[in-house]
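Reply to dn_fold:

You asked what the input looked like. This is it:
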Amino acid sequence: MKPLRVLVLMHETLVPPKSLAGLSDKQIDEFRTEYDVMEQLRKAGHDVRALGLGDNLAELRASITDWQPDIAFNLMEEFQGIVTYDQYVVAFLELMKQPYTGCNPRGMMISRDKALSKQILSYHRIPTPGFALFRRGQRYKLPRKLRFPLFVKSATEDASVGISQASVVHDAEKLRERIEFIHEQTHSDALVEEYIEGRELYVGVIGNDRLRTFPVWEMDFGTLPDVMSNIATRKVKWDRRYQARHGIQTGAARDLPDGCAAYLDRLSKRIYRSLYLSGYARMDFRMRPDGSVFVLEANANPNISHKEDFADSAHAAGVDYSAVLEQIIRLGLNYQAAWRLDEA
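and this is what came back:
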């Protein structure tokens, strides 16, 4: 790929320093994705600029108008402190007729709304746990059709926000307590779904029209006590000491039932298309001991730091980190946004 002007979009607090010297792993983890992406793009010969965004788009508009980047590399995960508002940044890019990486606004809106996405998946007869939505600020009745144990999480937050061992509840009293906790702590609606005991699997998908999946990845919960549920809590996903203490890690899924990998490949592509995703995404599944698979959620624009699941699974398929980023850029340049169709 020829050298490009790449404007990398990120939260204003995550603009990485030029050097990591003297910083701890904990400090680096805060902006690891931003640093890895920018460092690799520079190594590939691109002209790279970071733009930290907070609560307004004036600087983004000025950067697009003055610098005229070839592509905006979107690493935004929120805007104005609201997770679901990152889709509006992408919508603004489309209004500016600015090519960008990652998912389109419609796909982001649908996938960020976990209740809506599960309704769409159910319509397409894609297996997902039974669920109910409990809106913040409204009276509610406990669901009769759902069977305990149940899993309670935010209907919009990502990165395991609000998820802990207490998220798995076994009776009506604990369910009510956890719903209220989600409402108060995350300021969002609570999504309650039937808890699927079993293996946690991930599948990375990349593409716009023609899709490719990477090898099935799995969360190994290591030596977590039997009394604890095997769920991806914030500690499991982000606490390095906790991971090291219990041997928690992710890696290629082994000893899958015959035909399971091929089934997950087809199912992941169906989910991707059903939710109108583009660019790249990661599908999260649970598989029961009997081999039955349920999709938990689809993650548009998942973490793409150098040593995270998406990049590692791509590497296992023979696609190194540099090639992953180049593919993401190429998909962004080729995405047929509505403004391009109007100009055709």
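The first helix runs from residue 25 to 30.
Hope that clears it up.
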